[in-house]
Amino acid sequence: MILRLYSSVILVWDFCIIVVFFTMQMLRSLYQMIRLPKRKSVAGEIVAIFGTSRGVGRDLALQLAELGAKVACVDINSTENDMLVKTINGSGYIAHAFECDLTNKNDIIRTTNAIEKRFGHITMFFHCCGVPSPRSLVAEPPPIQTTLNLSVISHFWLLEAILPKMKRNNHGHIVFLTSVAGLSGVKHQTPLSVAQFAVQGLFESVLDELRIEKFLKTIPISLVHLYPFVLTENCRNDIRMRIPSAFGTIRSEDAARKIIDGVRRNELEISIPKYCLTLCHVFKLLPRRATLLLRELFDTGVDF
Fold first, then answer.
1. Distance CA 263, CA 280 (A)
2. Separation in Å, CA 280 to CA 108, 157, 180, 229, 275
3. SS3 helix, strand, coil % of the chain, rounded to 5?
4. What is residue 150's DSSP assignment?
5. Quick one: which of 26, 86, 81, 74 has its CA closest to 50?
6. Which of 279, 261, 281 has the alpha carbon at shortest distance from 270?
7. Which of 65-69, 176-180, 274-278 is most confident?
8. 303, β-bridge pairs
9. Cα(237)–Cα(298) distance, rounded to whole angstroms?
10. Which residue from 282, 278, 158 is spatially nearest to 221, judged by alpha carbons?
11. Distance from CA of residue 143 to its chain's centroid?
12. Closest to 149 (Cα-Cα) out of 129, 133, 164
């Protein structure tokens, strides 16, 4: 009887503590919506960006280098990657090109070792590979195994190679990029959608691992939701949407600037554009049939 009473008291006490901390976190989140957290410096950070030959990855490399980071530009396309590094170094900043096939575990290990030999331990890394372009979403889907290896399995290999050293140094930041295909799915692109959903599941798992091991304050993690139909600067003129005014476009360099701003503020989830993620969260609260009707209305109807 006494033990049962004691257990009940402890349970009530724990519940009260959680309610207090939950309320504090809600108030803190509301406060941060009004007054954004202070940006941290990235000067001197050793940043590895995987997928720098084009798009947002390329602009992330340029802008992080301008902020004083030492940037390892990693891509399988060595020609475009080398040109990018020449541009960065020619502007007086620090970068080096590395060629790597992210579908090959041994190549990933070799590349991360080469980055460490050149700059030191990686303190930040961005995984930009696997995020589709607008055209790829309406084209024939790539082979299933290739899609999963590039968009999902490579994350595990990179984490195996980099995260333990971040934990030893008690310092780092991990950034995953995913697309709208991981929030609502895309017709005729099941492998891609599954891969993008998997990246979000991986984010949740790593986030919980870092929380349990008490590393979340020193090794934050961010998930970036990109909407390819909005990042359409290179093919803007031949994309036709059902409701163009509901979407608009944004240049990749502007998207990269917003991503870096969110990363520097240690935001857990970043959305480009920001309102789309809020809409997706709201849709999840609605009945399934209602969300399907809304998708019918807002379906981008992308055509080329």
1. 21
2. 34, 30, 10, 16, 9
3. 55, 15, 30
4. I
5. 74
6. 261
7. 65-69
8. 240
9. 20
10. 158
11. 23
12. 129
299: tokens are 């379906």
**Count of C-beta atoms within a 10 Å radius of residue 183:** 21
pTM: 0.81
- At residue 245, what is the residue type? S
CB of 58 within 8 A of CB of 97?
no
Structure tokens that stand for 231 in this block? 């990042």
CA–CA separation, 75 and 52 (whole Å): 6
The amino acid that residue 125 corresponds to is F
- Cα atoms in the 13 Å half-sphere on the side-chain side of 253: 3
| Token couple for 103 | 């579908």
Element (H, E) at 96: strand 95-99
Report the Cα 10 to chain-centroid distance in Å: 40
Encoded tokens for 119: 């700059």
Cβ(275)–Cβ(225) below 8 Å: no
**CA-to-CA separations, 249 to 101, 208, 229, 252, in angstroms, rounded:** 31, 34, 8, 10
- The one-letter amino acid at 241: M
User: Which tokens is 49 given?
Assistant: 């960006």
93-147 pLDDT, tens digit per residue, is 999 999 999 989 999 999 999 999 999 999 999 998 866 555 555 555 667 788 8
Place of tokens 């041994």: 106
pLDDT digits (tens, 9 = 90+) for 18-64: 778 767 766 766 665 676 778 999 999 999 999 998 888 999 999 99
